[in-house]
TrEMBL record, chain A:
GO terms for molecular function: ATP binding; ATP hydrolysis activity. Keywords: ATP-binding, Cell membrane, Membrane, Nucleotide-binding, Transport. Residues 5-262 form the ABC transporter domain. It holds the Pfam family ABC_tran. Gene3D superfamilies: P-loop containing nucleotide triphosphate hydrolases (3.40.50.300). Belongs to the ABC transporter superfamily. This is Peptide/nickel transport system ATP-binding protein. The lineage of its organism: Bacteria, Bacillati, Actinomycetota, Actinomycetes, Propionibacteriales. InterPro entries: AAA+_ATPase, ABC_Ni/Peptide_Import, ABC_transporter-like_ATP-bd, ABC_transporter-like_CS, P-loop_NTPase. It is a peripheral membrane protein.
TrEMBL record, chain B:
Belongs to the binding-protein-dependent transport system permease family. This is Peptide/nickel transport system permease protein. It holds the Pfam family BPD_transp_1. It is a multi-pass membrane protein.
From TrEMBL, chain C:
This is Peptide/nickel transport system ATP-binding protein. Keywords: ATP-binding, Nucleotide-binding, Transport. The keyword Transport applies. InterPro entries: AAA+_ATPase, ABC_transp_ATP-bind, ABC_transporter-like_ATP-bd, ABC_transporter-like_CS, P-loop_NTPase. Transmembrane segments: none annotated. Residues 7-252 form the ABC transporter domain. Pfam families: ABC_tran. Belongs to the ABC transporter superfamily. One of its GO terms (molecular function) is ATP binding. It comes from the Bacteria.
Automatic annotation (TrEMBL), chain E:
It is a multi-pass membrane protein. This is Peptide/nickel transport system permease protein. The keyword Lyase does not apply. Keywords: Cell membrane, Membrane, Transmembrane, Transmembrane helix, Transport. GO terms for cellular component: plasma membrane. SUPFAM superfamilies: MetI-like. Residues 66-261 form the ABC transmembrane type-1 domain.
Length: 313, 327, 261, 478, 277
């Protein structure tokens, strides 16, 4: 089966003089596959996500290749679009339709001057989907699907009238309204409190299961990731340093950074008052990071950087 | 401690109105004092260079200028309450009768110039923002800068030289009221409006540009693009309204500038507007007219600022006060 | 509790503008010296509002807050010196709580140069020395004092904010979600730092978080807030292992855990 | 109808002018813009002045002066009627004159009428005016605003609705833009040829020129920026009439200033200024060099412009004699008028060359300048054009802002006014020479009258001898 | 392109300022001496820009004019900023405060609105009566007339800054209202004020031209660019260059200050600094 997304040797740099922030990463996502992307702040997760949909700011220079399968109605056509060279028009046709994205910050990601129902609804019309019951009913249905209460009232609300968790769910509704084959979720829950986060994760999980849709799920929180994805990549300083099935990565982290991450993520295990384990306990920053050249398409096996990984216990 | 009870909406409106009225009263006093403080004397102007001091004194008395200022202010203010701006010293006519026909001319001039400025500045500023890293965007920025650098009276002179004298497309100057037909009215206003709006367009374009740059950095803009809108579509659908807040503020701010600019444009194009009335009245120290016109301007600017404040809520739902709603 | 509590919060209400429901609704709390109090609750439950009033950065609409037997809720800024010298605050977002146009060193020593705090008992007089001391304490190189906030990572910036709060040697440290904006890899560092400081300086701590696990780690007592009210208080272990309130249980259940042994 | 742009309607004059009348009552306000429109065109006088400066009868068919020259008997034209159709009688003239004489009018014209003892309407067409003393200037003044005859029955709101006997009526007054005159259908004498006359007002000289160039005007009443006259040089399209006015541009010297009270200093300043070059620089060489307070259209005119040739050396010499060898500083307070500013700048530079430092200071005109210079005499030098006809008499008033105080001059002027017409001319001529000799002021130049018309317009005077822009003889070809 | 704006702006502004300074020491000809024989010469080797209707060298006049332009621009903007910005900060910080300061802020804002509507010309006439028509009159009148936009801009920016966490943090650190205004608000609103200042600078030069037309500014014979433009008006047909030179000078100076303002804003913007870090 052709993958939905095929990224090879993706390099992104910014500014003048050029500063490379992604140092050649490669991976692919098959239909229905749920891929996680973890890594510390600034490791290049968002840049990867934005590059995939061609949404990087114009100061970015992108090399390598990103190919998106172009679907036709229900399934992939076998045609692929090269994002790095595509026109804005070609990309716009795919964005929000077959490929969609959910951003981190629910407070600012919605247009404050437009009722949310309309913001969801206009995406239906934009991609030319004719809805039998009218777009309003589809919008309400979608809002219901993301577990929002009183969907009628919410559809007629402005973003500021909703809570953070509600807004994030509206954003999810916007991303999912056209039944995308791949949804990129860029830290969709970090801005939420624990209760709102739990709800949002539940909604996403249900949606992906029901539609057998693929996702690229970005977070720095392993605990969040564990409930959503099947396979995961670990990023560090613009490199993918480890990849494989999520259980294996968590159970037996191989890269010292991953080890540290797993250790710090288990806050509830620590005894109150006791010193918490940190990433730095496992991983020596002074050693240059080496990245994976490739992530196996099948994701069945763990992939690791050849040779000895840097420092740590 | 009892909780503070927030004012109800009608009460807040009333409060606002109260502030507005108080401002107008204070403004009227200030206007009066400044006008009275202007050196020179209308009686002398009326009687001309040959006048004897006795004649001047008699005329001053006739005008009531010999009374102490609180009395004069009181009389004027009492008139204001009846919408009576007093009578011009020079012509003996009610000031209001002089002001109203000219108010029309100036309103059209300023209003249309503002509209034109918006029509030019919004696309130009957006273009300059979207393409700011390209040569054409830089050119658009530079173009708006040039508009700032040319004095509007020269622009007016040049425009009338080229389009009226050389090409004969439009009348060189003068005004006909709208009641004389749309065509002639419009033809007479084209050049002055263009000349007046040039500077405004430039100023506005700069604000639109920076507001657009803000929008380009906004998350919701990125959301819109991720949803499938193209750059320009996203900007128009989701950027315009968000930008309008800062642009409206500037429009409100620029209005006073525009009124000042109108004085010069009205001279260059021989339009019978308020600006020229004010200029002539000041030159001749027809203080009643000066007071009337300036008070009118002050009230207009206050009213426009109040409108701008109110339009915020219209443009940005976050600023609306709703029952049972936070913030 | 035999001795007089440091803070006495009584029936405090705070209503914002025209809001229908107060953000903080008749809250009463006591805080003893040396105690470590956690305040948890979902977003919008009024946690920040409450601690801001305790730090006299906001005024209650009604109710009273006493610090060391002095009523602070109505005091004008110029008479708050004693409080400012004793109570310092760390905010949630390390990006926005530092002035982008001020060097880190200037930010940290700002409280020391404040006219309200200067020459108060306990507030260090030697600014330079104290700067180097606190920077070392939070694990920053004192040589970095001349750099600007944007040149630091999120974790580092939060350390800077903590250093700034420590500078005047306060007795009480109020931390409003100090780790929520941080990525997990640095979260542990900051929590460890706070734990160390509280222990070594004998600080009284008020820690706000929406994550009970964070509170459990640092605090001995916890107050659970919902819709502006305190719905449950108790020792951390008590609330953690046997929550009485239904809302507390939801909060606990919502914390994601790694599915590992 | 669109009269304000595009093309001028047939058989009409559209005249560009600079200042708009503030009111339409010429007796209440001294603004020159009022008689410009109304005098002779709408209001008529007993006598009028022609383009060479001579008096002719208008409403008066003829008049006799008594041997003691104190009684004037006018025979009014029996055909004369007001625009209302009512016959114009001696009673109306008496009413009009008395109105100006009346003590409760503050009009400046009252001083011109002050010499009148008594006005009597002997019968409908005979008017007898007796004066307190003989006065030549009185009759002259009667040819101007002071002498207009108002319809005593129709005099309501004269500020808005004139009631005269002239060939035109005020048809429309759009404030801020124009006054439109229409032919008086009941005019008692030869009706004028042009049907409608519009005076359009421009505060900006360039705007007026543009209007002419784009065909919105067919007459410019007086070009205000002579540098731009080249634009109208094509004789196929424009006719330029170059005549004289009564506007002497006077460099006034305050005789109360110690230095300036010394005739040698005044003469020195006069020698130090190259008036020919000044005229070229300031007014594009248009205008006339005069040398005293007399325009060439006055009967006693003689060319005195050569009396003080440009001679800086002589100027220095005179200053030295007067004791100002080491320099002299004078304050020049200028009205904000183009010619004054230009001339001031020029003069400052030339006086600097003879060791006189001029400090310039501009005063808003009219309000400030009149107040400071004319009322308070707080100045040393100033420049302004005196546009009234026959205004040399101002030098006879030592209180006038120049404070020129010469018994000889006063005596000559009094004698002139009281003398026979011939004595009037002779004495005025001598008086003008006295002024020149004393360098009472420096008459920089006489403002030109620069009228531009389209070639089909005729009957407009080149010289502006009165305050009227007289359109009664104008005609427009096709 | 951002750097280009800054560099071009700097070059133009420096050019204007240096010209002004140079004119104090040297001009090719006496900028006041009337030479009737040299009237209206075109540009040529002797007079690079030609001469005017009095035979005065135009280059010399342009150079001296730069002096007034820079002086009026700088002083007027300084007056406007020194009054407007503190009041704006006051109004901005007080808007969130208790009753009394808020009332003061309201009064300041309404007063500002009234001042804004007041024609600058009236102020200038009034001042001219007291001080005489002088450069100082024009500078003060233009400066005062420019206070309202500065005040508004500063207030809006202050409102934004004063809700930011670092201001709250500073209050928590015991910094009083004044300290916050000086140490935090002022530096953070500086970019917006810089842009406003550059806009106001250009406008001031043009306003001076208008006031000098009414005799309310620099007295004769000192050449200012505005006066040169006014004097060139009658020559619009015959010698258009007379207007072109001062027009160009005004244009370049205004352009320079605007570009400089833009460049400064970008330079002071932490967002942009971060990306070039
Ligand atoms: N527009 C940009 N201009 C310049 N540098 C950028 C830009 N966007 C991102 N970067 C840089 O690229 C690097 C990777 O950033 P990215 O946003 O992908 O990190 P992240 O892994 O998503 O981190 P976080 O968890 O904080 O979101 C960072 O060093 C960042 O500073
Ligand atoms: N300045 C303000 N003006 C108006 N309403 C406010 C303001 N600050 C907070 N609120 C409202 O008061 C309530 C409590 O807010 P508070 O910030 O105290 O909650 P919190 O528990 O700290 O939430 P979070 O976890 O999101 O920080 C919320 O409904 C919020 O919307
Ligand atoms: Mg990210
Ligand atoms: Mg909070
Ligand atoms: Ni027309």
């Amino acid at each position: 089966m052709t993958p939905l997304l095929q990224v090879s040797d993706l390099r992104v740099s910014f500014g003048r003089p050029r500063r490379e922030v992604l140092h050649g990463i490669s991976f692919s996502i098959a239909p229905g596959q749920r891929v996680g992307l973890i890594g510390e702040s600034g490791s290049g997760k968002s840049v990867t996500a934005l590059a995939v949909l061609g949404l990087l700011s114009e100061t970015a220079a992108v090399t390598g290749s990103i190919r998106l399968a172009v679907p036709d109605g229900d399934g992939p056509t076998g045609r692929q679009l090269e994002v790095t060279t595509a026109t804005e028009k070609q990309l716009a046709a795919l964005r929000g339709d077959a490929y969609s994205m959910i951003f981190q910050e629910p407070m600012t990601a919605l247009d404050p001057t437009m009722k949310v129902g309309r913001q969801v609804g206009e995406l239906l019309g934009l991609h030319g989907h004719r809805i039998p019951g009218g777009s309003r009913s589809r919008v309400l249905e979608m809002l219901r699907e993301v577990d929002l209460p009183e969907v009628g009232r919410i559809a007629d609300s402005y973003p500021h009238q909703l809570s953070g968790g509600q807004r994030q769910r509206v954003l999810i509704a916007m991303a999912l309204v056209n039944d995308p084959v791949l949804t990129i979720c860029d830290e969709p829950t970090t801005a939420l409190d624990v209760t709102a986060q739990a709800k949002v994760l539940q909604v996403l999980d249900r949606h992906f299961t029901q539609r057998s849709a693929a996702t690229l799920f970005i977070t720095h929180d392993l605990a969040v990731l564990a409930g959503v994805v099947d396979v995961a990549m670990v990023m560090l300083e613009g490199h993918v340093v480890e990849a494989g099935p999520i259980r294996e990565v968590l159970a037996d982290p191989w890269h010292p950074y991953t080890k540290g991450l797993v250790a710090t993520s288990r806050l509830e295990l620590a005894r109150p008052g006791e010193r918490l384990p940190t990433v730095a306990d496992h991983f020596d920053r002074s050693i240059p990071v080496q990245g994976l050249r490739e992530v196996p398409v099948s994701w069945e096996h763990r992939a690791r950087v050849p040779g000895r990984p840097g420092g740590g216990a | 401690m009892p909780p503070r009870v927030p004012l109800s909406v009608p009460l807040r409106l009333l409060q606002r109105l109260g502030v507005f009225v108080a401002s107008v009263v204070v403004a009227s006093l200030l206007v009066f004092l400044v006008a009275s403080a202007l050196p020179g004397n209308v009686a002398q102007v009326v009687l001309g260079v040959q006048a004897t001091p006795e004649a001047v004194a008699r005329l001053e008395q006739e005008f009531g200028l010999d009374r102490p200022w609180p009395v004069r202010y009181g009389a004027w203010f009492a008139g204001l309450l009846r919408f009576d701006l007093g009578r011009s010293y020079l012509t003996g006519q009610p000031v209001l009768d002089q002001v109203l026909p000219r108010l029309g001319v100036t309103s059209w001039l300023v209003g249309l110039a503002m509209v034109l400025a918006l029509l030019v500045a919004v696309p130009l500023g957006m273009w300059a923002a979207v393409r700011r890293r390209h040569a054409d965007g830089f050119l658009a920025s530079a173009l708006s800068q040039v508009g700032l650098a040319v004095p509007s009276f020269w622009l007016g002179i040049l425009a009338s030289l080229v389009f009226a004298v050389q090409l004969g497309w439009f009348p060189a100057n003068g005004y006909v009221p709208l009641s004389a037909g749309f065509g002639p009215w419009a033809r007479h206003l084209v050049l002055p409006v263009v000349a007046l709006s040039a500077v405004q367009s430039a100023v506005l374009a700069r604000y639109v540009r920076s507001a657009t740059v803000e929008v380009l950095h906004e998350d919701y803009y990125r959301t819109a693009r991720a949803g499938g809108w193209r750059t320009v579509q996203a900007l128009l659908r989701h950027g315009l309204r968000n930008m309008s807040l800062s642009v409206v503020t500037v429009v409100g701010l620029q209005l006073a500038t525009l009124l000042a600019g109108a004085i010069i444009i009205e001279s260059v194009f021989a339009l019978p507007g308020l600006g020229r009335l004010l200029l002539d009245a000041v030159a001749q120290r027809d203080l009643m007219v000066v007071q009337g016109v300036v008070l009118l301007l002050v009230v207009a600017v206050l009213a426009i600022n109040a409108l701008v404040d109110m339009s915020y809520a219209l443009l940005d739902p976050r600023l609306r006060i709703e029952r049972g709603q936070v913030r | 509790m035999s001795e007089q509590p440091l803070y006495q919060v009584r029936d405090v209400v705070r209503r914002y503008g025209h809001a229908a429901r107060p953000a903080v609704d008749h809250v009463s709390l006591d805080l003893a010296a040396g105690e470590r109090l956690g305040i948890v609750g979902e977003s919008g439950s009024g946690k920040s509002t409450l601690v801001r009033m305790m730090a006299a950065l906001d005024r209650p609409t009604a109710g009273s807050i006493r610090f060391r037997d002095t009523e602070i809720s109505g005091l004008p800024e110029r008479r708050l010196g004693f409080l400012r010298a004793s109570v310092q605050m760390v905010f949630q977002d390390p990006r926005s709580s530092l002035d982008p146009r001020m060097t880190v060193g200037a930010s940290i020593t700002e409280p020391l140069r404040s006219p309200l705090l200067r020459r108060r008992a306990g507030v260090p007089a030697d600014t330079r020395a104290r700067l180097e001391e606190v920077m070392a304490q939070v694990g920053l190189d004192p040589a970095d004092a001349r750099r600007f906030p944007h040149e630091f990572s999120g974790g580092q910036r939060q350390r800077i904010a903590i250093a700034r709060a420590l500078a005047p040697r306060p007795q009480v440290l109020v931390a409003d979600e100090p780790v929520s904006a941080l990525d997990v890899s640095v979260r542990a560092q900051v929590l460890n730092l706070l734990a160390d400081l509280v222990a070594s300086e004998g600080l009284t701590l008020v820690l706000v978080s929406h994550d009970l696990a964070v509170v459990r780690h640092l605090c001995d007592r916890v107050a659970v807030m919902s819709s502006g009210r305190v719905v449950e208080t108790g020792t951390v272990e008590q609330v953690w292992s046997a929550p009485r309130d239904a809302y507390t249980r939801t909060l606990l259940a919502a914390v994601p855990r790694l599915p590992l042994p | 109808k669109d009269t304000s742009g595009g093309h001028v309607p047939a058989n009409s004059l559209v005249i560009g002018a600079t200042a708009e009348p503030p009111t339409l009552d010429p007796t209440k306000n001294n603004a020159a813009a009022i008689p410009q429109v109304l005098l002779y065109n709408v209001y008529e006088t007993l006598v009028r002045v022609d383009s060479s400066g001579n008096l002719h009868g208008l409403l008066a068919q003829e008049w006799q002066v008594s041997p003691d020259r104190r009684t004037y008997t006018f025979r009014l034209d029996p055909a004369a009627t007001f625009a209302s159709g009512r016959r114009l009688t001696a009673t109306d003239v008496k009413w009009s004159f008395d109105r100006i004489k009346s003590p409760d009018t503050s009009s400046v014209l009252r001083t011109q009428m002050a010499v009148v003892q008594d006005v009597q309407a002997k019968d409908p067409s005979t008017l007898v005016v007796s004066l307190k003393r003989p006065s030549n200037s009185w009759l002259w003044n009667m040819s101007s605003t002071a002498g207009i005859v108002i319809d005593s029955q129709a005099a309501g709101d004269l500020a808005a609705t004139p009631a005269g006997s002239g060939p035109y009526l005020v048809n429309e007054w759009t404030k801020g833009s124009q006054v439109v005159l229409a032919r008086n259908p009941k005019y008692w004498a030869t009706p004028p040829r042009v049907e409608n006359v519009t005076f359009r007002y421009f505060s900006d000289a360039t705007a007026m020129n543009s209007a002419m160039l784009s065909g919105d005007l067919n007459v410019i009443s007086n070009v205000q920026a002579p540098q731009a006259l080249d634009r109208f040089s094509d004789p196929e399209k424009y006719t330029v009439l170059q005549g004289t006015t009564n506007g002497e541009v006077v460099l006034g010297m305050n005789n109360r200033n110690k230095a300036l009270s010394d005739p040698r200093v005044r003469q020195a300043l006069t020698y130090a200024i190259d008036r020919k070059a000044l005229l070229d620089s300031v007014w594009a060489g248009k205008g006339t060099l005069i040398g005293s307070m007399v325009p060439p259209t006055d009967p006693w005119y003689e060319d005195l412009s050569g009396a003080y040739p440009y001679d800086p050396a002589k100027a220095k010499q005179l200053l030295k004699e007067a004791g100002y060898e080491s320099g002299l500083t004078l304050r020049m307070r200028l009205p904000t008028l183009a010619y004054a500013k230009g001339a001031g700048q020029f003069i400052q530079s030339q006086l600097a060359a003879v060791g006189v430092t001029v400090v310039i200071d501009e005063l808003e005109f009219p309000a400030r300048w009149i107040d400071v210079v004319m009322r308070q005499s707080d100045y040393d030098l100033t420049i302004v054009a005196h546009v009234e006809p026959r205004d040399m008499v101002n030098f006879a008033d030592p209180e006038y802002y120049w404070h020129y105080d010469s018994a000889e001059f006063r005596r000559l002027m009094a004698a002139a006014d009281a003398g026979t017409p011939q004595e009037y001319i002779d004495d005025q001529r001598v008086a003008a020479r006295v002024l020149s000799r004393d360098a009472a002021a420096d008459w920089l130049f006489l403002l030109p009258n620069l009228v531009v018309t389209t070639p089909n317009v005729s009957g407009i005077n080149a010289n502006a001898t009165s305050l009227s822009f007289d359109v009664t003889k104008a005609s427009v070809g096709s | 392109m951002k750097r280009a704006a800054l560099v071009i702006g700097l070059v133009l502004v420096a050019g204007t300022v240096l010209t002004a300074l140079l004119s104090l020491a040297w001009t090719p000809y006496d900028p006041l001496a009337v030479v009737p024989a040299n009237r209206l010469m075109g540009p040529g080797p002797g007079h690079w820009l030609g001469t005017d209707g009095y035979g005065i060298d135009l280059l010399s006049r342009i150079m001296v004019g730069a002096r007034i332009a820079v002086l009026v621009g700088v002083v007027a903007v300084a007056i406007a900023a020194l009054v407007g910005v503190p009041l704006g900060i006051l109004a901005g910080t007080a808007a969130k405060a208790e009753r009394w300061p808020r009332l003061v802020a309201d009064v300041v804002m309404r007063g500002n609105d009234i001042l804004y509507a007041f024609p600058a010309m009236l102020l200038a006439i009034l001042l001219a009566a007291v001080l005489g028509g002088s450069t100082a009159t024009a500078m003060i009148a233009i400066g005062v007339a420019n206070i309202p936009p500065f005040l508004r801009v500063a207030r809006a920016a202050t409102l934004q800054v004063s809700v930011s966490d670092f201001v709250t943090a500073a209050r928590g650190a015991g910094i009083g209202r004044f300290g916050i205004a000086v140490r935090h608000v002022l530096p953070n609103i500086a970019p917006v004020v810089a842009v406003q200042a550059s806009l106001a600078f250009g406008m001031s030069i043009l306003s001076e031209a208008a006031l000098s037309y009414l005799g309310l500014s620099t007295p004769l014979p000192t050449p200012t660019w505005g006066r040169m433009l006014n004097e060139a008006q009658p020559y619009a047909w015959s010698d258009p260059l007379l207007a072109v030179w001062p027009g160009l000078a005004i244009g370049l100076a205004v352009l320079g200050f605007n570009l400089l303002g833009d460049g400064l804003r970008d330079l002071l913007d932490p967002r942009l600094r971060e990306s070039v870090q």
